[in-house]
Amino acid sequence: MKTISIFMNSLKLFLVNIKVYIFVFLIAPFIFSFMYGNMYKKILDPDRTIDKFQVAYIDMDKSPESKPLEQILRGDKLSKIVNLNNLSSLDNINSDLIKGNYTAAIVIPKDFSSNIGNNKEASIQVLQSPSAGVKGEIVYDIVKVYCSYLNMNRSVYSVIMKNLKDEVATEKMFKDITPLIEANLSKTYVTYTSLPKAKLLNYKQQFAPNMLIMFSLFIALTQAITVLKEREEGTVSRIYSTATSKLSFYFGKLLAVFSISLVQMICFLAVSILFIGVNFGNYLNLIPIMITHAVIISAITALLMVLFRNVNVLSVVFSFLAAIMSIFSGSFSPADYYPEFMRRISHFTVNYWINNLYTSNMLGDSFAYLFQIIAVMLVISAMVILLGAVKIKHEY
Asked: What is the pTM of this model?
């Protein structure tokens, strides 16, 4: 009963500043998760569609050998993304590329067909604007494949001519072989296997659990500070004089921390789901995850209660540690983009392991996998709480 009494009194004390705590533990993490999610939206959820872009086509040869390339670029599929513009000269093409008027320019030289006729390598110049990116690569690859096709035909013709040494016979044999070459080019030698879509967190999911975890750490801080202040003001001594045992006080405080943390999580998840549509995964799995999270916060509070004596020292040291752990675990930017050593360091933070539970559930991992992490974290938390109880009982 004494434990329940301490628990109720702790809740009443917490409710005195409930408006401040609603902002700090609910509204603030919600705002930060929404803000950082949108900041990194283009990185985490990039637009993978290609807008239609302008390509300059300058055919200075105007021969039958160059015409098929234009037909390819004006085909049904490529015309959806490529708007081909025929130009008569190279005038101002460089300035137009720099200005972004054209994504790329295809320049077919005057000697293009004559080079092919003289058994020389066919080449077409592709100029790209500074911002061409993947669009420029698309144009370059199309031109490269086209030139490779022509050069292969040239090589085949050359070999036949070298062996037969008769132009008429070579032409006849080359015409007979050409359909075989084209059929061989169109034939696929690759076996395609459909792979499952990669499991990735979207921009809404990336920061929501991280911010929830970071701000829940400050619940541990505020509650530990409350205990230290009660100890400094003599409130704890007065409580002990009423036949309340040290363990009743200790577990009553931790029960309050557990309850406050659990309510914060439920409210944050509800607000995030309702207002910005964050998908936290299987709702049933969230129950043991949140309980585990609340137990960990309680264990951290227990640790702070027994390790620190001074409120100012506690505030400075733990605030610094919480900020460092949050940075390394990806609260302010996606951890996947961190250097390797930073990702390794994050494994030594509480944030990482709690976040691992939430993100694993978001990605659809089984409860069997989650249970392994939950079991380890609950055992460690229980050990910390019990060691804290032993220290409280024998020191104060």
From this structure: 0.67
| Residue entry with tokens 């705590």 | 21
Q: Which two tokens stand for residue 184?
A: 């061989």
**φ, ψ dihedrals at 204, nearest 5°:** -75, -40
Hey, how many other C-beta atoms are within 10 angstroms of the C-beta on 64?
A: 8
Reported as type and span, the H/E element at residue 313 is: helix 311-328
* DSSP conformational letter for 123: -
Structure tokens at 29: 């993490």
Contact 338, 330 (CB under 8 A): yes
Q: What is the largest CA-CA distance in the chain?
A: 117
> What DSSP letter does each residue of 197-253 carry, written as one string?
PP----HHHHHHHHHHHHHHHHHHHHHHHHHHHHHHTTHHHHHHTTT--HHHHHHHH
Secondary structure of residue 154 in the 3-state scheme: helix
Other Cβ atoms closer than 10 A to 192: 6
Q: Give phi and psi for 104, each to the nearest 5.
A: -150, 160
pLDDT of residue 189: 42
105 membership: H or E segment, kind and range: strand 104-108
Q: Structure tokens of 278?
A: 């964050």
CA distance 206 to 280: 10
- Cα distance between residue 184 and residue 265, in whole Å: 62
User: What does the pLDDT look like over 202-214, one tens digit per residue?
Assistant: 888 888 999 999 9
Q: What amino acid occupies position 258?
A: F
Tokens of 256: 């309050």
Pairing outcome for strands 104-108 and 125-128: antiparallel
